[in-house]
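Q&A log
Question type: sequence-to-structure
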Amino acid sequence: MSIFRNRREFLALAGAAGTAGALALTGCGTGAGSSPAADGKAAPRRGGQFRALFTGGGEQETIDPHAEALAIDMARTKALFDRLVDLDADMAPVPRLAQKWEANADATLWRFTLREALFHDGKKLTPEDVLFSFGRILDPKATNHFAQGLLSVIDLKKSRGVGKNTVEIALKRPSAELPALLGTLGTAIVSARYSDPAEPVGTGAFRLKSFQAGRSFVAERFDDHWDGGAYVDELRILSADADARGNALRGGEAEYGYEMTPTFARTAAADKSVRIVAAKGSTAHAIVMKCDQEPFDNPDVTLAFKLLADREKLVEVVLAGQGVVGNDMFGKGYQYYPEDIPQRKRDVAEARALLKEAGVLNKTISIYTSSVATGFVEAATLFAEQASDAGLRIKVTTGSSETYFKDQLTKGVMGSHRSGAMTIPTYLNDRLLTKSAFNASGWRRKDFDTAFAKAQSTTDEGERTRLYGDLQRTVHDEGGLLMWGHPDWLNAVSSRVRGVEEAPPNTLDSARFDKVWLA
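Response status: OK
Response body:
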């Protein structure tokens, strides 16, 4: 079993009675409002064991930073590795392993200056490590490398190291956003000596002690980390379902719970042992319709389904009101989001007319969903009820939570979809191009690909904004995304945890445990 469902099994692997943890957790604060973190008077302290709980992925879990696909994978790779660039709260690139960068006039050649950093084996970071990392990501034999399509713009043959701490990245075509691309998932820098994912060689704030897919991960502080190292001695990242995460937090058996339910968040408001850390409206939930399959190869049908959604009701019921309605585009509030597009409203009569014209009303259509993410099954079920108002029959089929995101690419003509924060160009690149690895809506149009390439290579920011806006309008009008809501990102911490505050819209920066500490 990959997800702990009983307290005894959880405690055995969590090491709840560990001496280091017990010592560090004495003298806890009393929760939000009275904790040292709230008034900023307490200084960080070292020591203790930090236990973080995530939805598990069974044998699909990995600590390969270029193949990360699940939230639990990403938390582990953030501990072990660093990227050249991070994204701040506004989704703008900021230095990480790269101290600075600059481009030539047409953005076809970028030069990155590396900081002094050590790998876990004691070797210094070099330009060769960066080039090796990009070569590994772009290896055509590695079909599961998340950022392969994103970084395909890099011309490795023309890229080179310059001296001991500079790397020149040549591009096949202009890209004004290369630094932002390097701040996304699957772009971590590994050592040129890295050959076995089971034996990671990174520069992260933690060094691996043990890993068992679907069960546990244990890492220790790397004292020679370039940014000073972590505060806690040991990090444990474990698989647990939503109920087990909540119970463990309340019982003092864990310090962090990833993606808690709105119901838990409401009840936790009166619980001094737990604090909710929220990022308002920072995620995206959608129902995807596969535009390369009947009946959704007809844009009138996808439009009809969008018109059937009662978005306010979905937010109210599925998200318990903790979120905002969506408008069938990703990135609400982000750079390049066309705010001037009117909010789509429910129109059952118009939807029914379109469906009748397309000959769809008498057919049963299946939506493939899973309990892998909070709200997926509930949203699919409620939407099926809403669609019945137009005489449409939708069957809800539930798949495995451990393999859902992979299975959904090939199963069913409709599915549940979500995304955390990323730049709008990254989302379009990863999910809406013909060759996108995670194209869950089956949106494949050569004219869209060409328009995206033009936007990405345009160095004038105003013109680039207009071009991305046009792409978003096309998705809104014709695409297979019924993006009904933007939930608040709800994580929870024990009241004894410091260094985890209200999360920014950039959820890519969540589950970073290098600066947490225990009171």
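Response note: The chain is about 25% helix and 20% strand.
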